[in-house]
């Protein structure tokens, strides 16, 4: 194998079940076995607080050599913050409010089995829009995910936004169970590669579950700078790593 390899992981559905914590035995496997062979990195759409909760604490930025929150808009290398971008400064308040106002109006008209609170979450690098609301319970999350698979609530909402604002400069990406992300064109997970391509890796292996078109792993999974691995669960991620590196 090449001497300098990076394994870069999505979080939800790849290292953890959606919005849940990583299994302690899986984390030990990554730190004790995999880290002796290659460098470890994480790229997630959530903010650093949420990623840290799922990855067993704030020392995440020291356990993993590279941590990219919000698709890489917030970037840590070996425990030190290296870069941070701001969607408000980049896109301007007028464009942001157009999307926010349209989304709130759209959500006020649709009927779902349940609705809760926090329908739009403002992050440094994106807007996260959840038709059910992010304050729902885990049981309600699971139920909405099944409902969305049948009724395409998120996909239909994205189509409506794209029709209303065809040239506004945003990309829309479905991830996790209950929400989708809205971010400037080019600010998908490939954003983190602008930092990694300077690091001299022989190979970058990316592992993610939402790799189909419209999923938030699609762009980076298909980027020529990485070797993409589609996974179906944390257990599948571990099995693929064991096979790839003969662990």
Automatic annotation (TrEMBL):
EC numbers for this chain: 5.4.2.8
Residue sites binding alpha-D-mannose 1-phosphate per the record: 19, 123, 134, 141, 179, 181
Cited Pfam families: PMM
Predominant place of localization: cytoplasm
Subcellular location: Cytoplasm
Catalytic activity as recorded in UniProt: alpha-D-mannose 1-phosphate = D-mannose 6-phosphate
Cofactor(s) annotated in UniProt: Mg(2+)
GO cellular component: cytosol
Assigned keywords, A-Z: Cytoplasm, Isomerase, Magnesium, Metal-binding
Record-level GO BP terms: GDP-mannose biosynthetic process; mannose metabolic process; protein N-linked glycosylation
Active site: 10 (nucleophile), 12 (proton donor/acceptor)
Function summary: Involved in the synthesis of the GDP-mannose and dolichol-phosphate-mannose required for a number of critical mannosyl transfer reactions.
NCBIfam families per record: HAD-SF-IIB (TIGR01484)
Record-linked PANTHER family: PHOSPHOMANNOMUTASE
Protein name (Swiss-Prot/TrEMBL): Phosphomannomutase
Species the sequence originates in: Ceutorhynchus assimilis
């Amino acid at each position: 194998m090449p001497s300098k390899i990076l394994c870069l992981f999505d979080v939800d559905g790849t290292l953890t079940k959606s919005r849940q914590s990583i299994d302690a035995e899986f984390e030990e496997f990554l730190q004790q076995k995999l880290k002796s062979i290659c460098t470890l990195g994480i790229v997630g759409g959530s903010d650093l607080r949420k990623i840290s909760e799922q990855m067993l604490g704030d020392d995440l930025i020291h356990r993993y050599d590279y941590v990219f929150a919000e698709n890489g808009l917030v970037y840590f290398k070996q425990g030190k913050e290296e870069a941070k971008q701001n969607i408000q400064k980049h896109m301007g308040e007028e464009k942001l409010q157009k999307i926010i106002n349209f989304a709130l109006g759209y959500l006020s008209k649709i009927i779902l089995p349940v609705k809760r609170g926090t329908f739009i979450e403002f992050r440094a690098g994106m807007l996260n829009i959840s038709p059910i609301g992010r304050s729902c319970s885990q049981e309600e999350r699971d139920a909405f995910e099944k409902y969305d698979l049948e009724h395409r609530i998120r996909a239909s909402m994205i189509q409506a936004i794209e029709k209303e604002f065809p040239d506004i400069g945003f990309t829309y990406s479905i991830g996790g169970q209950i929400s989708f992300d809205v971010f400037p064109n080019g600010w998908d997970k490939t954003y983190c590669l602008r930092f990694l391509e300077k690091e001299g890796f022989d190979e970058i292996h990316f592992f993610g579950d939402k790799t189909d078109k419209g999923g938030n792993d699609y762009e980076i999974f298909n980027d020529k700078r990485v070797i993409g691995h589609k996974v179906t669960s944390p257990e599948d991620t571990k099995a693929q790593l064991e096979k790839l590196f003969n662990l």
